[in-house]
Specification:
The complex is a heterodimer. By secondary structure, chain A is α/β, with parallel strands linked by helices. Chain A is built from 19 helices and ten strands. The N terminus and C terminus of chain A are likely disordered. Classes of the chains: A alpha/beta, B alpha/beta. Chains A and B meet through helix 2, helix 3, helix 5, helix 7 and helix 8 of A and helix 3, helix 4, helix 6, helix 8 and helix 9 of B.
């Protein structure tokens, strides 16, 4: 079971009630309006039945016990039990119903958010850390869910109860009731004041917690530096400052609680005393029955509990509003890379690639590609060579339209790729990443990426084609073996073989292979990998990024990328003969190998 | 949890509780008092009702009203005291525990940090800590209150009428049974929900981490479908949980209410038969109402109790991890550190993986040595042993002839200006970062550090100069800027030994040469260990140590080793070639009107 650690920058405090957010949330509730109305009706029934209890008691005292009779006491007991059963059934039905609604709403919202994320451009994911987005999908929605299923219901029930009691008291004896209500205004004022103070306190608490977490997190991450610079004592002193800040904020909030609880209690006592004194006097004057007096006292007890509870629900609402705000923020992110409104379609793709004076930058100040132009004919194999940071990886990303270019055009079969729907384009371009991402699923699903249109047989054929089945067949469950998180139970070479099998299974016309040097691959796997790459690129337009230059001698053409431009172009022999940049790079690697030979 | 940790756990929890015994004890007395006082108003009510029934006058009723008010004031004060003392103390325990945890984390060594995840440590220091706080505060309070209320409540019920009391509390075992049954069923169902929530989280996490792969193969729709399936399962499990949990509270409330029906029936007959008065009948009902609440919260209290204990165990795990690197029992401080360094037969393993084996190396005070070798050759590990980020598995590291393990840690680390390979700066003003080792450096020291490190050239680009806040909440520095800041931070230490672990890798050639030129005078009278690749740096060292697979392959001056035509010579020539290509590239770009500034 995995848990997501809530980030600190998420500890922003929202308002308790934000009309705009509530309206937006309302939109999600609309499909379930019947269930919600029914649920509210049930709640009203509960509130009504809750009122009945003291009335039965009143009747029992006045009509039976005080009269010295017990003939209808049994009936009253049965009625009382009946009301209890009614409450039980209605509350249960209401609870299940509301749980259903809130679960459904949150499921809808979660899937909508997920769907939205799938449409976001890669640049969006570059900007937003994974943890933050996951928190939106999980914890933030869970917070909202709790409020819908529990918070709102409790608030509603409490409000209903309070108003029902107010009405019943008036009906029982309006004079005594009005006398009681004299005590209400100060109570309401103090509850409001308390809620306000509590909210301030809560905000202060969250701020200190955020500071403590940020400071501690930084210290844990940089502990080596802290220790090397003998900063333990000083940093502890600073930590203590923050910790003390939280302690004081905590104690302040606690004082409010410690005062509030007895205050409500005192109000209760004052009203009970008043009922005894004023009401008792009227009973003696026979203007009021003893049963009514007892019922009044019972109602007053029931009256304070919802009021106290209401104050507690404040903080829950607050965090829900903050969560809603954050969720909507993500939902409001516009799609950066959009499909054309009148898309062209790629039919019978041959796989001709053209870059026409392409300029590209992740941010406008730092150009990664500065006017790159080249053509790759269908079925041609081309290698991209250049130092780290020369723009090779970016160039690959552009062909799949992970990013939009600033100037120029990228064309597939003479169609500019931004005139084709993204997903259609990508169906024709297969990418083998250097560190391929593997999912916690079976090998089979990792090869076909859960795409049911690719049959298990096709998956096995793909595995066999790239030579991945040798190691897969050695696993106990073969293609059905479930991989560990990120494929941790596989070697780098095995992971790359799986990525190649993916390409073979999806069978695109264009293949991009990122094949950078990795120290951890043994020669045997290395050779297998090279064979697989050749196998996968056969008959497809291919671009291969390779660091080991001796592995790309077989390609038709080599493009040397340098500082965002195509610096040299030609076959391996031609480029060596030119004695330019490629020659240097090659010589460097050759020497490197010489060094290796000498050592071993 | 090992038995040893279990003992520590109990001792630790107890020590925090005992530390505040003079707050807890009166707190619990106040709680006990409040629970007793709360039993009196129903008694007053009984007399009042009986008085009313007999047609008593208003003044007697006023007196009863005043008594109820007076009792409420006493109860309020006691409740205030109880909450203030017990819950307030739990905040203090939280504060202590957090400080203790932070202090312990500061003492733990790199082996611990390599083996643990930041997220996990943070979770213990935050979430778990809060759960423990609830354990030693509200949960203790609840336990105490429930026990006291039950005890007093039942006693008062019995005092009215034994038969009626027994009849009305006969349902208590039933409630207890219901609580236990529901609680365990709900727990199981809830765990199933949480498991699915975990799967959902993993799904989301993997989807977002692997979004490039998903997009590259246009599998968005498949992902949405499988995420929707996981959601449906979540829904199914949540509803299965809801069927129980939605019934729990209503059932408990009704179970408590049912006792009122019992009293209505039996009590009603008792009143009519004259066995009890009508006032006693009302009193009885009032007690049942009082008893219902603590009964209902019993289940919740037990859950938080369990969670609190589990969290405290997780915290104990950290607190009971002994640091492997600590001050010696009998430290032998040096009066003056000269900077003679010696590695004697040093072997170092990470778990079972050998990193360094039988290293013997003398670095005389004042000399400059360059360490070269491929990735994994053991360069960084070697310098880590000097500052005791790790201790060697075998052999000794000596500073001025003293085993570093015999020196006070603080003196050892103060003696070495260290620039680590991975630059870590703190989210504080740049100035604070530079003066990390020395609070309030003089103006000259600061100027010297930022000029030598060439950080001074970056200042015009920063809006607030040295006061600019950097890091997550501030300005993001480039790799080169970070390294220059880290260098300035080490320089200001003015230590007799300096270690630069690949400290200028992100600094461009031109600036690097300028820094090295300025460092020349700084290094002249200090022992300097350089881990470097650039040829200019290597050629400037007094002697060179070439490491290979954790052993010393060659030692000698630059010239000697070049003549030897061994590992170092090949390394050096290869590096030269790479630099040439880089230079050519820079020249080409410049001539093409490139934008490299």
């Amino acid at each position: 079971m995995s848990t997501v650690y809530q980030e600190y920058d998420d500890d922003v405090i929202g308002k308790v009630y934000d009309a705009r957010l509530v309206r937006r949330l309302g939109v999600y509730l609309r499909p379930y309006v019947v269930s919600i109305v029914f649920s509210v009706l049930l709640l009203m029934g509960v509130a009504a039945l809750e009122i009945v209890g003291p009335l039965i008691l009143k009747s029992a005292i006045d009509d039976q016990i005080a009269q010295g009779r017990t003939d209808r006491l049994g009936l009253l007991v049965v009625l009382f039990l009946g009301s209890l059963t009614g409450i039980l059934l209605m509350r249960y039905a209401q609870g299940v119903l509301m749980n259903y609604v809130s679960q459904r709403v949150m499921m809808d919202l979660r899937i909508q958010l997920f769907r939205h994320l799938q449409r976001m451009a890669i640049a969006f994911f570059d900007r937003n850390p994974v943890g933050r987005l996951v928190t939106r999908l999980t914890n933030d929605i869970a917070t909202l869910e709790q409020v819908v299923s529990q918070g709102v219901v409790a608030i509603l029930l409490n409000l209903l109860m309070v108003s029902a009691i107010v009405v019943v008291l008036l009906l029982l004896d309006w004079r005594l009731a009005l006398f009681m209500y004299l005590f209400l205004p100060p109570l309401v004022v103090s509850v409001r004041y308390f809620a306000f103070a509590q909210r301030q306190g809560y905000r202060e608490q969250r701020a200190w917690i955020a500071r403590i977490n940020a400071y501690l997190n930084e210290n844990i991450s940089g502990m080596a530096v802290v220790q090397l610079f003998n900063r333990e004592r000083e940093n502890l002193r600073r930590f203590d400052q923050r910790n003390r800040g939280l302690l004081n904020a905590n104690l302040r909030v606690l004082s409010w609680y410690a005062i509030f609880e007895p205050a409500v209690l005192l109000f209760g006592a004052v009203t009970t005393a008043a009922i005894l004194w004023y009401g008792g006097g009227r009973v003696v004057q026979e203007a009021l029955t003893l049963g009514t007096l007892v019922a009044f006292i019972q109602y007053m007890q029931r009256f304070y509990w919802p009021i106290r509870d209401l104050a507690d629900r404040y903080t829950t609402l607050q965090s829900a509003m903050a969560s809603a705000e954050r969720i909507f923020q993500v939902l409001d992110e516009p799609e950066e890379i959009v499909d054309p409104s009148h898309p062209k379609h790629l039919r019978d793709v041959r796989g001709r690639i053209e870059f026409r004076d392409v300029w590209f930058a992740y941010d406008e100040d730092n150009w990664v590609l500065k006017g790159v132009s080249f053509v790759i004919e269908p079925g041609e194999k081309v290698a991209l060579v250049g130092a780290t940071g020369a723009g090779k990886t970016s160039l690959m990303s552009l062909l799949s339209r992970f990013y939009d270019i600033q100037r120029g055009a990228v064309l597939v079969d003479d169609v500019p790729i931004d005139e084709v729907p993204q997903r259609e384009l990508r169906r024709h371009v297969g990418i083998v990443l250097q560190d391929p991402f593997l999912f916690t699923d079976t090998i089979e699903e990792n090869i076909r990426l859960r795409d049911a249109s690719i049959s298990p047989d096709q998956v096995r054929a793909a595995g066999a084609l790239v030579g991945a089945d040798t190691f897969i067949s050695r696993l106990r469950e073969g293609y059905r073996t479930v991989l560990a998180e990120r494929g941790a139970n596989l070697s780098t070479g095995q992971k790359q073989l799986l990525a190649l099998a993916r390409v073979a299974a999806f069978n695109p016309e264009i293949v991009l292979v990122l094949d950078e040097a990795t120290a951890s691959i043994d020669p045997e796997t290395e050779a297998a990998l090279q064979r697989s790459i050749r196998e996968v690129t056969t008959g497809r337009t291919s671009i291969i990024i390779a660091h080991r230059l001796n592995t790309i001698r077989y390609v038709d053409r080599i493009l040397v990328l340098h500082q965002g431009r195509v610096a040299e172009e030609g076959t391996h022999r031609e480029l060596l003969a030119r004695r330019g940049l490629y020659y240097r790079l090659y010589e460097l690697q050759y020497k490197d190998q010489g060094l290796l030979d000498a050592v071993t | 949890m090992t038995p040893q940790t279990a003992v520590r756990f109990r001792r630790l929890l107890l020590s925090y509780l005992l530390r505040y015994r003079w707050r807890y004890l009166p707190g619990f007395f106040a709680l006990l008092g409040a629970s007793l006082v709360v039993m009196v108003p129903p008694l007053v009510l009984r007399h009042a009702i009986d008085a009313i029934a007999e047609g008593s006058t208003g003044s007697r009723l006023a007196a009863y009203g005043a008594m109820i008010l007076g009792l409420a004031i006493v109860e309020s004060l006691m409740r205030f005291a109880a909450r203030h003392l017990v819950s307030g103390t739990s905040r203090r325990v939280e504060y202590d525990l957090r400080n203790d945890l932070a202090a312990h984390l500061m003492r733990l060594d790199q082996r611990f940090y390599v083996a643990s995840q930041t997220g996990d440590l943070m979770a213990r220091a935050t979430n778990d800590l809060q759960v423990v706080r609830d354990l030693v505060g509200p949960t203790l309070l609840d336990l105490g209150r429930t026990a006291a209320m039950m005890l007093f409540g039942v006693a008062f019920l019995l005092s009215i009428n034994v038969r009626l009391a027994l009849v009305s509390i006969a349902y208590l075992p039933l409630i207890a049974f219901l609580v236990i049954y529901f609680q365990s069923t709900i727990e199981g169902k809830y765990r199933a929900v949480q498991d699915q929530f975990g799967k959902l989280t993993t799904h989301a996490q993997e989807n977002i981490s692997g979004i490039r792969t998903i997009k590259a193969y246009a599998q968005e729709e498949t992902e949405i479908a499988s995420f929707a399936r996981a959601n449906q399962e979540m829904m199914r499990r949540s509803m299965s949980w809801a069927y129980y949990t939605a019934g729990f509270w209503p059932l408990m409330t009704v179970a408590a209410g049912a006792s009122t029906a019992v009293v209505l029936w039996f009590g009603g007959h008792d009143v009519v038969a004259g066995r009890i008065t009508i006032g006693q009948f009302v009193q009885f009902n009032a007690y049942l109402f009082l008893l219902a609440q603590p009964m209902l919260s019993l289940g919740w209290t037990f859950t938080t109790l369990q969670q609190g204990i589990a969290s405290m165990k997780r915290i104990t795990e950290v607190l009971s991890t002994e640091p492997l690197i600590k001050d010696p029992a009998a430290p032998a401080p040096l009066t003056v550190v000269r900077g003679d360094i010696e590695f004697q037969d040093v072997t170092f393993r990470h778990g079972d993986i050998p990193v360094l084996s039988r290293i013997n190396l003398k670095i005389p005070a004042g000399s400059t040595v360059a360490l070269v070798g491929g990735t994994g050759a053991g360069k960084t590990s070697l310098v880590s042993l000097l500052v005791r980020l790790y201790d060697p598995t075998e052999g000794r590291v000596l500073l001025d002839g003293v085993d570093v393990r015999d020196l006070p840690l603080e003196q050892l680390r103060a003696a070495v200006g260290f620039v680590p390979q991975e630059t870590f700066l703190f989210s504080e003003p740049l100035k604070e970062n530079i003066s990390y080792a020395r609070a309030n450096p003089s103006q000259e020291e600061m100027t010297y550090a930022i000029e030598t490190s060439q950080l001074v050239t970056d200042l015009p680009q920063l809006t607030h100069g040295l006061d600019t806040v950097i890091g997550e909440r501030g300005v993001t520095l480039s790799g080169g800027q970070k390294q220059r800041a880290a260098l300035a931070r080490a320089l200001i230490k003015n230590a007799p030994v300096v270690v630069l672990d690949d400290a200028l890798s992100h600094v461009d050639t031109h600036t690097e040469e300028e820094i090295l030129r300025r460092l020349g005078t700084f290094m002249a009278d200090r022992t300097t260990i350089l881990i470097a690749h650039r040829t200019s740096t290597l050629a400037g060292a007094d002697f060179i140590v070439a490491l290979e697979d954790g052993t010393i392959a060659e030692v000698g001056t630059h010239e000697e080793l070049l003549q030897k035509e061994g590992v170092y010579a090949r390394f050096f020539r290869r590096q030269l070639l790479a630099e040439q290509i880089q230079d050519d590239a820079e020249v080409t770009t410049a001539s093409n009107g490139g934008s490299r500034s």
